[in-house]
């Protein structure tokens, strides 16, 4: 094997090593359980990962900018609670959707404004969104008192969002729109520039603060949409429904092969990461692993993905 081929193979393993390992696990599970690859099971997996996939698309924007948004799980919970409360109060179901989206958008703008105001980098964004995660989780608990709220959801758009394959269509729609924006527009190029070198972006005349607020606004808006779809599926809300969604979203982004340090990224990779992680979770269920072990696996995947990303950049440099 020539040196060039060896170098390419090494870069491939470093960039996609975890993805390749998960694919091997999936193939082994398919051999053990032939029905694993049945079309019905694949559609069920896509339906299950669609909510996390939507959240992961918003997380991709934040990570590309060099930050993490840890509040998305709490936003998912909070928007679901207030959307169901609005439905039960007799408000029009379409208006309830906009209420949920508006709450998610405002939460994202709040996060972005705080981070932009202090000129925060990745570390500051991590702490601030961790703080808002705690606050928003508490806000979701107050009206529900920590209990499920059954929804009197009428037939209409709100109910339709969680019916049949509609969550999958919403996920694909969000992914296509964001992919176009990030790969084909000036906005996407500015995002990568800011993620690579925020100071240089400022000196070049880019309105860095306004752009950074918009990144968290997108993340909050999509987390709000995910919360609406989630409670629409079960026609009820759970104040802790979004627990660990931030970890699942980060896992989808980095396992898909996106850089964990920002400056580059792809929605396509995130979609692949979300789907592969969903299939992996299904495979672990079939192999008899409990939820606790699955959380350990996801945590280790994130650590390994970040380590491989750092090693890949060192090799390239």
Explain what the structure shows.
The protein is an all-alpha fold. The protein has one domain: ABC transporter involved in vitamin B12 uptake, BtuC. Helix content is 77%, strand content 1%. The protein is built from 13 helices and two strands. The protein has a two-stranded antiparallel sheet with strand order 1-2. Helix 2 packs parallel to helix 7, helix 3 packs antiparallel against helix 4 and helix 11 crosses helix 12. The longest helix is centred in the N-terminal third of the chain and has 30 residues. The two termini are 23 Å apart. The mean pLDDT is 88.
Largest sheet: 2 strands, antiparallel
Rg from C-alpha positions?
20 Å
Proportion of helical residues: over 70%
N-end to C-end Cα span: 23 Å
Oligomer: single chain
Number of structurally distinct domains: 1
Query: How confident overall, as mean pLDDT?
Result: 88
Helix/strand/pairing class, anyone? mainly alpha
Low-confidence stretches: none
Could you tell me the strand content as a percent range? under 5%
Total of DSSP H or I helical runs spanning 4+ residues: 13
Looking at the structure, the CATH topology is ABC transporter involved in vitamin B12 uptake, BtuC
Number of DSSP E strands: 2
| CA-based shape | globular
């Amino acid at each position: 094997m020539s040196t060039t081929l060896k170098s390419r193979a090494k870069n491939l393993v470093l960039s996609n090593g975890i993805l390749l390992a998960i694919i091997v696990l999936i193939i082994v599970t398919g051999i053990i359980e032939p029905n694993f690859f049945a079309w019905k099971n694949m559609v069920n997996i896509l339906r299950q990962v669609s909510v996390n996939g939507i959240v992961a698309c918003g997380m991709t924007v934040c990570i590309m900018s060099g930050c993490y948004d840890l509040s998305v799980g709490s936003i998912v919970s909070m928007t679901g609670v207030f959307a169901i409360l609005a439905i039960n109060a007799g408000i029009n179901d379409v208006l309830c959707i906009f209420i949920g989206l508006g709450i998610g958008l405002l939460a994202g703008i709040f996060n972005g404004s705080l981070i932009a105001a202090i000129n925060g980098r990745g570390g500051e964004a991590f702490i601030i969104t961790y703080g808002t995660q705690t606050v928003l989780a508490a806000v979701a608990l107050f009206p529900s008192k920590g209990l499920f709220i059954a929804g009197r959801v009428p037939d209409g758009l709100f109910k339709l969002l969680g019916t049949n394959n509609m969550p999958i269509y919403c996920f694909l729609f969000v992914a296509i729109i964001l992919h176009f924006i990030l790969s084909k527009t000036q906005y996407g190029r500015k995002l990568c520039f800011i993620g690579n070198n925020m100071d240089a972006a400022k000196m070049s005349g880019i309105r860095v603060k306004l752009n950074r607020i918009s990144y968290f606004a997108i993340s909050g808006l999509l987390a709000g949409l995910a919360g609406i779809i989630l409670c629409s599926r079960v026609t009820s809300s759970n104040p802790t429904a979004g627990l660990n969604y931030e970890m699942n979203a980060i896992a989808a982004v980095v396992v898909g092969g996106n850089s964990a340090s920002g400056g580059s990224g792809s929605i396509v990779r995130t979609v692949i990461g979300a789907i592969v992680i969903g299939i992996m979770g299904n495979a672990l269920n079939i192999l008899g692993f409990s939820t606790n072990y699955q959380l350990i696996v996801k945590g280790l995947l994130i650590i390994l993905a970040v380590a491989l990303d750092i090693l890949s950049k060192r090799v390239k440099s």
